[in-house]
Amino acid sequence: MSSPGAELKAGLKELGGTSGASSLGLQLQTLVHSSDLLLKIQRTPKRTVHLSRRSHTSAYIDSCLDINDLVEMSSGGTHLQPHCQTLTVDDEEESEDEEPKFCGVCGDQAKGYHFNALTCEGCKGFFRRAIKRSSPLQCLFLNKCVITKNNRRSCQACRFQKCQAIGMRKEMVMSAEEVLERRIKIKRRKMRVASSQLSPQQEKEIEELLTAHRKTFDLDFSRFRGFRPIGRSINFPSDLEEYMNESCEPLCSHAEDFCAVAETSSYDFFLPCLSPSSPPSLYMQLETEQNTQSDQKITIFTSLPHFSDLVTYMIHDIIRFSKSLQVFRSLNMEDQITLLKGATFDIMQLRFNMVFDAKTCLWECGPISYFKDDVIRAGFQPFLVDKVVKFHKTLRNLGLTEEEYVIAQGISLFSPDRPGVQQRDLIDQQQETLALALKTYIDSKRSDPGKHLLFPKVLACLTEMRTMTEEYSKQVLQIQDIQPDDISPLIMEVISDS
């Protein structure tokens, strides 16, 4: 019976090698890169083939490799002929690679190389924390402490010193920004390798979102009844937009005084905010009304009562939408409230975008069409309204389908970075699942040449929407201080921090 070494030499010879094991690496590399080569690998238990370390390859084959085709190397390419040969090696080399490795810092079992040195997981984490530590480490003795597995927590200074001594490099520790960037790259890589066809689970997720959306959103707004009429007349001169533009900066400069408005008249706050260039008729009318009708309720923002009813109606539907989702219902009540308070206005903007006409800049909500001035008459400053209109134009021009809209609503709802969430991992997993579903849906359902740009554009719109919603909430609080009786408690609950 021939020895394993003789079998290996025979195998090398038949593969065309004349220089022994040293040429095996180059030949195997050539075989692997040949597009015409098909190797049939048959697994057998408890056998590991290890090609010698003295060769130019360090490949490990977790099975007995049967080469059913003899490869003949020629200048013309790689040709296959039927043949059978088995490569085997001594079990001694197999055991060498199973030898335990130990941490160079504390002697614990090492899992691999971390920051350029062979260490355990504990010392890896310690080194990362020590690098990010602001205060210096100090030894209470002579900086000569012996670091072992049992006492490695006793002296951080000597432990850190030994980390550096064995070659751990601080420049290899990533910053928080680099970690975030790496996570984003990993997520993008996962999205790139995802299948171009929707999986049954993804189809189920989309169908659940679509069903919940259709039950809770009426494009014709036929269920929106009993609301206060929209006031398109105003109680002060018709140049309201000019006033709002001119008084924007002084209004912001008096933001710290908003908290005192509830204790005084709304006019006491409003009059100092008017700049000298404000329309004289506006100033005189407000001053007159303050003196003659101080005991009466004056509606400054005439569209506000109607918009308060509209937004309250939308909030109720968004709550019903969220409660229709199985993953949302599985969260604890605290996280449900946190996610709703953070995403309600985002989802509302996505729903309003479905009825937005980018050409006329009108929100066509069934029998009522809203335009920019209606929003200004509700108390919102023109600079924010212009930003809202621009956002809706951009998003509407993407031409999203109903399915893409509802997936975007789900992505906004399951945001793991909302302050105070407890089940962060579960929420993050659900958001990633929906993001992958949106990417796959776009790839599989669309055929236009620019479809590969649609997914990042949608994500960019969602990011912009969150910034816009923060400004929107701040202005609602300002409007509530000026005209407190017309904003519903539900709206105030949604935008409150607690």
Please name the defining characteristics of this protein.
single chain; about 500 residues; mainly alpha; Erythroid Transcription Factor GATA-1, Chain A; Retinoid X Receptor; 4 domains; three-stranded antiparallel sheet; two-stranded antiparallel sheet; 9 strands; about 50% helix; metal-binding; zinc-finger
- Biggest β-sheet, characterized? 3 strands, antiparallel
And the CATH topology of the largest domain? Retinoid X Receptor
Beta strand count = 9
Low-confidence stretches: 15-90, 235-287, 289-296
Helix and strand content put the structural class at mainly alpha
Helix content: 40-55%
Shape: elongated
Q: What is the N-to-C order of secondary-structure elements (H for helix, E for strand)?
A: HHEEEEHEEHHHHHHHHHHHEEEHHHHHH
Task: Give the domain tally.
Answer: 4
Q: Any idea what the CATH architecture of the largest domain is?
A: Orthogonal Bundle
Quaternary state, please? single chain
Radius of gyration (CA) equals 34 Å
CATH superfamily of the largest domain: Retinoid X Receptor
